[in-house]
Amino acid sequence: MSDDRFEPWVEGYLDYLTGVRRLAHRTRVDVRCTLKRAIKGMAVARPAIPLWKLSLEDYLRWIEKEREAKRSATSIAKELSHLRGLLDYAWRSGRSDRNVLDGFQLADSGRQAAPRVLSIEEAKRLILACPRNTKRERHDRMIILLLYGCGLRTSELCRLDLGDIDIERREVFVRRGKGDRERKIPVPEGLWTELLAYRAERGGKRGAFFRTEAKHARVSDKCVCRVVAEASQRAKLEVRVTPKTLRHTFATHLMDQGVDVAVISSLMGHRGPAETGVYLHALPGRHEAAVSKLGGNQREGKA
Questions:
Q1: Per the structure, how many domains does the chain have?
Q2: Both 74 and 126 in a single domain?
Q3: Rounded mean pLDDT, 122-135
Q4: Measuring CA to CA, which of 8, 102, 107, 258 is 20 to 30 A from 167?
Q5: Facing residues of 173 across strands?
Q6: In terms of domains, do 195 and 142 share one?
Q7: Range with the lowest mean pLDDT among 38-42, 176-180, 208-212, 230-234?
Q8: Coil, strand or helix: which one is 186?
Q9: Each residue of 65-94: b (16+ CB within 10 Å) or e?
């Protein structure tokens, strides 16, 4: 396999993920990165042996190397899921006798790490550190506000078009989220006022909502990350802040205000409430409060 492309059969598997299983392009990129990482790691002890011909012992040694490199259990579990999918495809295609990772799970992968989030005070500091005196400043400030105020993913923010702002319903329409799922997100009142002002200043009715200043091209993931990093530096926040931090903060603050998990799941574009449950880890006492609330409902005769 070359550095850039795998052999045709593996490239066909990646095409299958997006063309048949309809997984997001970002997922395909993640799987490709996992396969490259695994091939490189396995080549030390098992050179020129394809992934689907390796034994479970080979994968166990690779896992141990990943742990020694301080990779988290969550990251390793995600990579194992990617590899399990490839091995299952190889088995079904007759390229291997069995999927050696079928049913295999890390003993410590069941517990998800709490996502990094900002406190209310830190979020306020971040927004206050985003001035709106110039057109460029208002552009960058709106990026921060939409990431935190609507919980958008970076890719969703970059793909946002002027036509995705529903003036009548006061919503942002995400046309193609993760897994090609669509959703509509109500815009908070304070953010809505600034969003309308920015939209009017942006002008036009079609095209990208956020454009670069020099070439007027659609902003990239890298551009959004830079905006967030510069804002967090101005706010003098001690924690590392990324676009994903603001998305996690959006969900956590909603949950802290008592918003139902199913509602948050819908706003986040998750596959279901179970995926949203990771935010319970960030809120001290949330499990106890949930149990207490359940007990109260039972005493009142509620389902």
A1: 2
A2: no
A3: 96
A4: 258
A5: 184
A6: yes
A7: 176-180
A8: strand
A9: ebeeeeeebeebbebbebbbbbbbbbbeee
Instruction: Judge whether 289 lies within some domain.
Output: no
Length in residues, the chain: 303
Task: For residue 244, give its domain range.
Answer: 120-284
Nearest CA to 157 among 214, 208, 198, 232? 208
Distance CA 174, CA 247 (A): 14
Residue 133 belongs to a domain:
yes
Strand 183-186 relative to strand 171-174, pairing = antiparallel
Single-letter amino acid, residue 191: L
Instruction: Please check whether residues 84 and 196 belong to one and the same domain.
Output: no
Token digits of residue 70: 């301080």
Q: How far is CA 1 from CA 11, 26, 40, 42, 55, in A?
A: 11, 22, 11, 13, 20
Please tell me whether residues 23 and 136 are part of one structural domain.
no
Contact 14, 5 (CB under 8 A): no
DSSP state letter for 23: -
- Which run of H or of E encompasses 174? strand 171-174
pTM, entire model: 0.62
Query: Is 109 part of a structural domain of the chain?
Result: no
Which residue is it, tokens 């149990």?
291
